[in-house]
Write a structure and sequence with these properties.
This protein has 227 residues and is an alpha/beta fold. It has one domain: TIM Barrel, CATH 3.20.20. It is 39% helix and 18% strand. Helix 4 (87-93) packs across helix 5.
């Protein structure tokens, strides 16, 4: 059986190969290890193999792990849907929030970010495939929300996050990322340097189209148990 350290090495190699294949700078894509439903011991194993950025979808589960792993210098990313009543612990305990999809949520995160912490890094989630089951703003709403969120104190607006409808064909995988990347470029906002898209199944397509953070869970930690 392959260990988490071995899988981490394989994934990093895949990322590096994809960067080189499209003439991107080696190291320009950050691996975000998605550790939802996985125990703290698995996160510790990945940390000991050199991984520092971890993404969680469920707030209470994440807060428990943060307590268990308090001795580790982890950068915590929240990537799940956000309810208004959960913004305070998000503002207090995370370094990044990728899934902001309304001004109301952004305002609450800004107001509740503790003064002793650096500004919270924010990505706006775009529902690039217009799927009714998924969170996120439309592409048409992106310019105005960027304008509004950029003015809020205690937040660093960094970029966008997307989870497009799954596709098997490489060219079809590229298309939504290409559209979103171009839309951000056309905003002419230099602070938007982060493109949080790409998972195990479409990692290469995402990197070709400008991803700077790929979110990898199952390929690193194995199948999830939602029981």
């Amino acid at each position: 059986m392959t260990t988490i350290a071995q899988r981490l090495k394989q994934i990093r190699s895949q990322i590096n190969d994809a960067e080189l294949a499209c003439n991107r700078q080696p190291g320009s894509v950050l691996l975000l290890a998605v550790s939802k439903t996985k125990p703290a011991e698995d996160i510790a194993a990945a940390y000991q193999a050199g991984q520092r950025h971890f993404g969680e979808n469920y707030l209470q589960e994440a807060l428990r792990k943060q307590l268990e792993l308090g001795a580790y210098d982890i950068t915590w990313h929240f990537i799940g849907p956000i309810q208004s009543n959960k913004t305070k612990p998000l503002a207090m305990h995370f370094d990044w929030v990728h899934s902001v999809d309304s001004l109301k949520i952004a305002e609450r995160l800004s107001a509740q970010r503790p003064a002793h912490l650096p500004p919270l890094n924010i990505c706006l989630q775009v529902n690039i495939s217009d799927e009714p089951s998924k969170s996120g703003i439309t592409l048409a709403e992106l310019p105005q929300l960027c304008e509004q969120v950029a003015k809020l104190p205690n937040l660093n607006l960094r970029g966008v996050m997307a989870i497009p409808a799954p596709q098997q064909d490489f060219e079809q995988q590229r298309q939504p990322y290409k559209i979103l990347h171009q839309a951000v470029v056309e905003l002419h906002r230099p602070e938007l340097d982060t493109f949080s898209f790409g998972m195990t199944g479409d990692l290469k397509a995402a990197i070709v189209e400008g991803s700077t953070i790929v979110r990898i869970g199952t390929a690193l930690f194995g199948e999830r148990n939602y029981a």
